[in-house]
Amino acid sequence: MQGVRVSRRIFLGSLAAAAGHSACGETPRNETVHVGLIGCGMEGRRLLRELQRHGASVSVVYDAAETRKQRAAAAAGAHAADDWHGVIDRPGVDAVAIATPPHLHATIAMAAMEAGKHVYCASPMAVGVEDARAFRDCAQRTNRAVQIGAAPAGEGQWRMARKLIRTGAIGDVQWCQGRFHSAQNVATDETGRVDWRAFHPGAPYNAARLVHWRHYWDYSTGTAAESHYDEMTALLYAVDASFPERVSAAGGIYAGDGRETPDNLVFSAKYAGSVTIVLASAACATAATIRGSAGSLEMRGAEVRLLRESPEGSVAESFRAEPEKGLVQDWIEAIRTGSPCICGTEQGYRAAVAVAMAIEAYRRRKTVRYDPVQCIVSEDMPRVFA
To answer: Which of 4, 92, 77, 84 is closest to 39 using CA atoms?
Structure first.
């Protein structure tokens, strides 16, 4: 069957910029942004390099592991604080970047915002719904520039997909499949002497938990779920969805290394209208796809591919993705200008709810549904999160 070419004017003529959010208190454009770094492992060191690359000054650092803290302090020419409070309280600090395990994210972020600091928080924003909600509410109240570091949110392909969807290019969105992520172990990092009380107050020291914290419910939802959180932030933005009506999940632990969290997780989240989002972990990556009543979009990195079927034939057309924008760069600009962050706390919270529902469904082996009062409940049981 002969293909039919679709005029790009149908779509390009009506592409509109995404709606923004309220501006935050800003730092004068020409002034250096002084950042305190909390968490100096592999993600923290990556953040340090990105902050320096975009003109920020990292003036104070902290990590519960002494070796990591001193290494980061030397790399930045920064003061090494005795605890994370010392980073927030350090004179001259405008903003705080958080790269600790997720169980500490909300506590540190809220303390920083209440102290008037802007916040960059590595993803996910929190482990549970209650912490994520408190984090979001604090950000709204304090009006700081807050970026959740879910990397896919900065990819231009999602912004182009959102614009195409809004023009009706694929009709009503019906089904979304995220990229399949490998749930293999994340590389470990040396620690040296450790302030265990800062990492897990009240618990006996456990070296395995310190090194492999993603294996334990106390600190994380696991490697698979954390990958799904990142992808979910981008998908929810593209299809303009809020909270799931219900979520079901399956998965398991196949690594045989004593972990508590699943190394494989697949879940299906049903949203209002016709939208269903499916995410899974696997050994290979596939293109994310958004299917609608009149066509489909495939995310191909540098381009978004539009696929349609009609009586005249198949249609395939590519649209160049918008330029990718790094989340650290975007955050620094938001601090300086008051512009909205690409991945703010509302977007992060919506993803947190979906992933928390998936984890609850996995652990209970039941479908769970979303309560309008922002509580997760089981289909046949009372409230799970009060």
So the answer is: 84
- Domains detected in the chain: 34-150 (3.40.50.720), 153-185+210-323+344-379 (3.30.360.10)
The residues with which 319 forms a beta bridge, in sequence order, are 304
Beta-bridge mates of residue 72: none
118 Cβ contact partners less than 8 Å away, ≥ 6 residues apart: 24, 94, 95, 96, 144, 145, 146, 331, 334, 335
**Under a CB-based contact definition with an 8 Å cutoff, are residues 174 and 276 in contact?**
yes
Angle at 221 between CA 85 and CA 233, to 5 degrees: 85
Using the predicted structure, report yes or no on whether residue 202 has a pLDDT greater than 90.
no
How far apart (Å, rounded) are the C-alpha atoms in residues 95 and 56? Answer: 10
pLDDT in tens, 245-257: 999 999 998 888 8
CA 337-341-345 angle, to 5 degrees, is 135
**SS3 state of residue 214:** helix
Q: List alpha helices for the chain, DSSP H.
A: 9-12, 42-53, 66-76, 84-88, 105-114, 129-142, 156-166, 196-199, 207-211, 223-239, 327-337, 345-364
pLDDT tens per residue, range 25-84: 555 566 899 999 999 999 999 999 999 999 999 999 999 999 999 999 999 999 999 999
Contact status, residue 177 vs residue 288, Cβ threshold 8 Å:
yes
